[in-house]
Write a structure and sequence with these properties.
single chain; about 40% helix; 4-stranded antiparallel β-sheet; Rossmann fold; about 25% strand; globular; 6-stranded mixed β-sheet; alpha/beta
């Protein structure tokens, strides 16, 4: 494996009596594209949200690019480590979560300026370059209400990238889109993969997984039931539950 960027060890997450993740361990190397798939409610989104501590794990540890956090009380040191991890791991959600009162460019530069203290000029110049990469240069001064769903999601990706993360986390980024808009978002993600971005992607787009993933993980009832290369899993899954799920989505 390339330089390890993510190490999850014995992760457990409970919501009251409900155990959503059960002793999950996962390593992700630099430049890997890991596709996480499985039924709704299997724990996929919770796993991603635990990585950048949008959800607080119940047990276990998470390490991102050398910053390790174990379960424990919220101290000043722990809070700073969580801040460091969030700076390293950009996240794109199912919903776009753009600020409706800000233009596209204002959305893109908000976090670098307010969180990282960058100059507006620096953040804007990089934002222009990123918008060009996703084919939205002409939308910089538009407001989100004037964008299609696919355009909004590409802006959300650009906004995350403008923080210069080492890792991108995608939580079903095409699930809220009409079918004809899915392709433009997947194209932007493929470009990221080709450029060597480390990515964890929750998706049911198996064509994307087949083309882009270096590894796939099938999550079922809070555990990683099976993992392997896309050809290995899509053509010869070992577990019956994996095979049944793939038969339903392929």
């Amino acid at each position: 494996m390339a330089t390890e960027l993510i190490r999850i060890e014995h992760l457990q997450k409970c919501f009251g009596p409900l155990q959503v993740l059960d002793d999950v361990s996962l390593k992700v190397g630099s430049g890997e594209v890991v596709v996480i798939f499985g039924r709704s409610g299997s724990g996929k989104s919770t796993l991603l949200r635990c990585i950048n501590f949008l959800e607080e794990p119940t047990r276990g540890s998470i390490e991102v690019d050398g910053t390790r956090i174990d379960v424990g009380h919220m101290t000043r040191t722990r809070r700073e480590k969580i801040r460091q991890i969030r700076m390293k791991a950009g996240m794109v959600f199912q919903e776009f979560n753009l600020f409706p009162h800000l233009t596209v460019m204002e959305n893109i530069i908000e976090a670098p300026v307010t969180v990282k203290g960058e100059s507006k000029k620096e953040a804007t110049e990089r934002g222009k370059e990123l918008l060009a990469k996703v084919g939205l240069s002409e939308k910089a001064d538009e407001y989100p209400i004037r964008l299609s769903g696919g355009q909004k999601q590409r802006v959300a990706i650009t906004r995350a990238l403008n923080m210069r993360p080492k890792i991108m986390l995608f939580d079903e980024p095409t699930s809220a889109l009409d079918p004809e808009l899915i392709g433009e978002v997947l194209t932007a993600m493929k470009t990221l993969a080709e450029e060597g971005m480390t990515m964890l992607v929750i998706t049911h787009e198996m064509g994307f997984a087949r083309e882009v993933a270096t590894r796939m993980c099938f999550v079922d009832e809070g555990i990683i039931l099976e993992e392997g290369g896309p050809t290995e899993l899509l053509k010869g899954a070992r577990h019956e539950r994996t095979r049944r799920f793939l038969e339903a989505v392929l």
